[in-house]
Amino acid sequence: MKEIKGRVWLFGNDVDTDVILPGKYLVLTDPKDLAKHALEGLVPGFADKIKQGDIIISGKNFGCGSSREHAPLALKHAGVGAIVAKSFSRIFFRNAINIGLPVVISKDARERVSEGETVTIDLEGGALVKGNGERIATEGYPDFLLKMLMDGGLLQSLKKRFSKVERK
Q1: Which residues pair with 129 in a beta bridge?
Q2: Is residue 40 domain-resident?
Q3: Rounded to two decimals, what is the model's pTM?
Q4: Which of 26, 58, 85, 120 could form a disulfide with 11 if both were Cys (CB 3.0 to 4.6 A apart)?
Q5: Is residue 163 part of a domain?
Q6: What is the dihedral of CA 82, 57, 134, 90, to 10 degrees?
């Protein structure tokens, strides 16, 4: 998963966790059920329209609001391959990394891509690549976070690390 290719969904600034997943759905526990309601207030039927691997590109402060892990879970299980934004809420960013959902910071991507365009995110190379080859800079990850994402999130990364320790 060093590269993520998908169709772009554009959103603005301050997309909060209540918009990502309305609070009335917090009683649901199955991530597949959460996914059915992802972003439904902004894009009616979003869960039916998204294709596996699609990429959300947003303005600043994506994931602001509550610290609930339900919001990134709903997006991941709806099929979102990654989220690119000018900035993220600190807690949303960490929750996304913990569940293996790539969140990428780019100061320029929102203004340089179009809705529906297909792009590729190069996680190691620190770029979003448009279909015409144009590269848009993204902030890279520290090695330990990139490894955690490659492993599928925090829990999978820990399982992998400790299974190696037990075998020694």
Answers
A1: 120, 135
A2: yes
A3: 0.93
A4: 58
A5: no
A6: -70
The Cα-based distances of 145 to 9, 32, 71, 103, 124 in angstroms read 25, 26, 20, 11, 11
| Amino acid letter, 70 | H
Q: Tens digit of pLDDT for each residue in 23-47?
A: 999 999 999 999 999 999 899 999 9
Domain count, the chain: 1
CATH code for position 82:
3.20.19.10
Domain enclosing residue 33, as ranges = 3-140
- Give the pairing of strands 55-58 and 103-105: unpaired
Residue 33: C-alpha distances to residues 26, 36, 73, 78, 84 (Å): 10, 5, 10, 9, 24
Q: Whole-angstrom Cα distance, residue 30 to residue 22?
A: 15
User: Which pLDDT band holds residue 157 (cuts at 50, 70, 90)?
Assistant: confident
15 closest CA partner among 48, 34, 43 = 43
Question: Cβ contacts of residue 76 below 8 Å, gap of 6+?
Answer: 31, 35, 96, 99, 100, 101
